[in-house]
Amino acid sequence: MEINDYSQVAVLANAHSLYGSVSWESIAAAKHRDPGASFSDAIDRRARDRVFDYDTRLLDVFGTLQQHGFIFVRDDQRKISGIVTAADVVRKYDEKATPFFLIGEIDQELRHLIVNVFDEETVKEACLAAHISFKSLDTMTMAQYQAVLNNVACWEQLGWRLDRGLFIERLDEIRKVRNNVMHFNPDPVRPSEVAKLRNFLRLIRSYRGR
């Protein structure tokens, strides 16, 4: 357990039957009861009640995860195939939710930037020059932000000492990531893409003095 950084392990009667579990908590409890306790003394047989089929809804196991910290999973062959911990769920949620939050913050920063620097007529003209329709500042899209910031006159008015071409190239990459996320592309957002989102958000905030 220590070598592999496991917090708990399964104790199997056979491939299909869980005998119990051993965790650091159960080891500590066994040692507290008897300093000379053996491995079998540390087996928590109550874990047999925490075996769920692989297709069980996550919502249906939240209570058990919250109370015990982990559950065991039975695969489609009825074999005990693994452990899901509360930490696993938090990590997966972070993987799914973080891109949404970062994209939302980037959108907000770009909107505030454009609203505070340019008047509506300037924004409209920049969008139309890029052959993109425009309704209002409140309904702007990532493509419209890109059209405004790629406009030479607007970029000069902004006064940022950044290469406009490189900035727009990265903004276009952000737009593509945003489209994949918002259109629920089944492929997960790669760590490198999350890093791009974080770095771009940090860049905008630093130039906006935030």
Structural class by SSE content: alpha+beta
SSE string: EEHEHEEHHHHHH
Biggest sheet: strand arrangement: 3-4-5
The rounded Rg comes to 26 Å
Helical residue percent band: 40-55%
How many domains? The number is 2
What is the count of helical runs? 8
Shape: elongated
Low-pLDDT stretches: none
Distance linking N and C termini? 45 Å
The fraction of residues in strands falls at: 5-15%
What about the largest sheet? 3 strands, mixed
Number of distinct beta strands = 5
Describe this structure in words.
- There is one protein chain.
- This protein has 210 residues and is α+β, with helices and mostly antiparallel strands.
- It folds into two domains: 8-78, no CATH class; 92-207, no CATH class.
- The chain is 52% helix and 13% strand.
- It is built from eight helices and five strands; from the N terminus they run E-E-H-E-H-E-E-H-H-H-H-H-H.
- The chain has helices spanning 24-33, 62-68, 86-117, 120-129, 142-149, 152-158, 164-182, 191-207, and strands at 8-14, 17-23, 51-53, 70-74, 80-85.
- A three-stranded mixed sheet has the order 3-4-5. It has a two-stranded antiparallel sheet with strand order 1-2.
- The model has no long low-confidence stretch (mean pLDDT 91).
List keywords for this structure.
5 strands, elongated, 210 residues, single chain, 8 helices
Topology (SSEs and partners):
Layout: E1 8-14, E2 17-23, H1 24-33, E3 51-53, H2 62-68, E4 70-74, E5 80-85, H3 86-117, H4 120-129, H5 142-149, H6 152-158, H7 164-182, H8 191-207
Parallel strand pairs: 3-4
Antiparallel strand pairs: 1-2, 4-5
Helix pairs in contact: 3-8, 5-7, 7-8
